[in-house]
Specification:
The protein is of the alpha+beta class and about 375 residues long. A hairpin with a 2-residue loop joins β8 and β9. Helices cover about 40% and strands about 20% of the residues.
Length: about 375
């Protein structure tokens, strides 16, 4: 039976804020610059040069270490990118929340981070476990506890505590009002990434068996149902949920559901390689950032396409910017290595969200 000593969860919520790119957010708001090419580029260059007076960072912790951004910029080192290119690629800025939200329950370490983009904002809640070995079922139970039973303290709920979804709503409203003022927003979530970072006792020559404890754990940490139907554990369901692509080891599996991804790569998380923890931690972060950026772009395009239908109309400025967002998302989905980060995650996101019709609509406006 597999034993897991280190795993990570990231939950992602995304809101589209049309007022930003419509230039309806005043420049004197903390992040009003996000809707304007020149001020955005200046803020980007200040962050790149460590000169920013804002409590704001670019979305990479270390430019050299994040493959997602390197390949998103067509193979260019993220630390060398200038603000004009950041604007063209609609790169978000990263920051802590204006006021903290903390977990009352402490079986896992949790952090909140906000991403402010020209198209809207994203909230990422990260949960980290590193400790005594857990069987896959116990790992899944802990993940479900974070999702549905952990309580959080915030300014809106200082004592009683709120569950994750309510805490995320508080965080998004706090971040939105601080950054942009009283503006309309539309969005949802969470989308999740779950990755086993370290473990043992896995047969690298054997595939994950339908209905096995490993299969059940992957379903739990991507579909987020506390009591799934037996049909979720069939061989057909396992095959359907497995992302296609290069599979170097028999036991490796990237399980995809509409609401999340579960990463099970025993070739990386077992054994004594000193590289396994940073490699899988980096992969988890790359997959998380890929999802954040894709959701920011895709939901903006979806909003423009949906509001372009009568009786609504969308200003030409937003249509122009939605076309650019659609081009960026389509490039990510194509996965050409010399143009963007290669991952089957993005085209699966587009398919599951039904965004292709919106991409076609905006392209033809």
């Amino acid at each position: 039976m597999a034993q897991i000593t280190h795993f990570r969860l990231s939950f992602i919520w995304v809101e589209t804020v049309p007022a930003i790119l419509a230039k309806q957010v005043p420049l004197d708001r903390p992040y009003g610059f996000l809707g304007h090419a020149g001020p955005y580029a200046q803020a980007f260059d200040e962050c790149q040069g460590k000169r920013s007076a804002r409590a704001l960072q670019l979305p990479w912790l270390q430019p050299k270490g994040h493959h997602f951004w390197k390949y998103y910029f067509g193979g260019h080192h993220a630390g060398d990118v200038i603000g004009a290119e950041g604007w063209r690629k609609q790169v978000p800025f990263r920051s802590a929340l204006p006021r903290p939200i903390t977990a009352i329950d402490r079986d896992m370490r949790l952090t909140f981070e906000a991403f402010y983009a020209p198209t809207g904002l994203a909230l990422v809640v990260n949960a980290y476990y590193r400790g005594a070995a857990l069987a896959p079922a116990a790992m899944a139970a802990l993940a479900l506890a974070v999702r549905y039973h952990y309580r959080f303290k915030s300014e809106a709920a200082p004592s009683a505590g709120r569950l994750l979804d309510a805490a995320a709503e508080d965080a998004l409203e706090m971040a939105r009002r601080y950054a942009f003022g009283a503006v309309d927003a539309t969005g949802g979530g969470p989308f999740s990434i779950a990755t086993v970072i370290e473990g043992s006792d896995v047969d690298l020559t054997a595939e994950v068996k339908p209905g096995s404890e490993e299969h059940r754990a992957l379903v739990a940490m991507s579909e987020w149902q506390e009591d799934p139907a037996p049909s979720r554990y069939t061989a057909e369901a396992l095959k359907k949920g497995t992302l296609t692509g290069k599979k170097p080891a028999v036991a490796d599996l990237l399980y995809a559901a509409r609401s999340g991804r579960a990463v099970w790569l025993p070739r990386e998380f077992v054994g004594s390689s000193k590289h396994r923890t940073p490699r899988l931690s980096c992969y988890h972060r790359n997959l998380t950032l890929s999802s954040v950026q894709s959701l920011l772009l895709g939901r903006f395009v979806e909003w423009v396409a949906g509001n372009q239908r009568p009786p609504n109309t969308v200003p030409s400025l937003l249509i122009e910017r939605a076309k650019r967002a659609g081009q960026l998302l389509s490039t990510c989905a194509a996965g050409e290595l010399n143009q963007t980060y290669r991952s089957h995650n993005v085209d699966t996101l587009i398919r599951d969200a039904g965004w292709q019709a919106s991409l076609d609509c905006v392209k033809n406006l």
